[in-house]
Amino acid sequence: MIDEESKKELLFEILTPLGFSVRVTHDYWNLISTIKHPVMANKIIEVQETLRDPYEIRLSRKDSAVYLFYRSEHISRWVCAVAKRLNGDGFLITAYPTDSIKEGEQIWLK
To answer: pTM (2 decimals)?
Structure first.
């Protein structure tokens, strides 16, 4: 459950097609978009849409609680939003552009 203090810092919370929500705080999005993947700085809407309406969702090969959401950005380019689900709560780990869908079990396809 999210406490009141965390809600104040929440940037967004998106319900995924898998029936759980993924959230991210302002501070964590800032880390993703300035340090981890600066190319994502102006792509918050694309990340939200990738979580809300992906083309495909795969399970991570390394962690069965981690999901990779893919949505086409343009021909041969994808936005990948990586989320972890713990005890029913989902949170964004990272987001990045990619030219290929990673290996892993496909669990959802549009």
So the answer is: 0.90
